[in-house]
Amino acid sequence: MLKKIFFTVSFFIPLFIFSQDKKTIDSLITLSKTTLQDTSRARAFCLLCYEYSSTDSLQSKEYGEKGLALASKIGFESAKAQCLYNLSVMYSENSDYLSSIECLQKV
């Protein structure tokens, strides 16, 4: 009986955690498409870069580069630094340590 309970709980907890991440990602994507403020869009891109860093490196890189370009364009230095840091996390997660260090050196 205890094994069945443990199995059931261990099965549903990851599903719950994933659904929370999916809600966050969906909200950030919506924000990045609908907000008129460039600073909010840059922050949303940075956060999307981080959210995807361990699951989808291509998406992470795409959002990180979008955020970096927008933050650079509008002179939003804190978002620029955050995007570079998040890109370094993504590179590190993919064992591309040289690219990770290069991003950190630009911060």
Word description of this protein:
The chain is an all-alpha fold and 107 residues long. It has one domain (2-106). The chain is 87% helix and 0% strand. The chain contains five helices and no strands. The chain has helices at 2-34, 38-52, 57-74, 77-93, 97-106. The chain is flat and about 35 Å long. The relative contact order is 0.11. The model is unreliable at 5-20 (pLDDT under 50).
- State which percent range the strand residues make up: under 5%
Largest sheet: none
Give the overall average pLDDT.
Answer: 84
Taking all Cα atoms into account, the compactness measure Rg is 17 Å
Question: How large is the count of helical segments?
Answer: 5
Distance between the termini: 54 Å
The figure for the number of domains is: 1
SSE pattern, N- to C-terminal: HHHHH
Low-confidence stretches: 5-20
Structural class: mainly alpha
Shape descriptor reads flat
Number of strands: 0
Helix content: over 70%
Protein topology:
Elements: H1 2-34, H2 38-52, H3 57-74, H4 77-93, H5 97-106
Helix pairs in contact: 1-2, 2-3, 2-4, 3-4, 4-5
Brief descriptors of the model:
107 residues; mainly alpha; 5 helices; flat
Structure at a glance:
This protein is mainly α. About 85% of the residues lie in helices and about 0% in strands. The chain has helices at about 1-35, 40-50, 55-75, 75-95, 95-105.
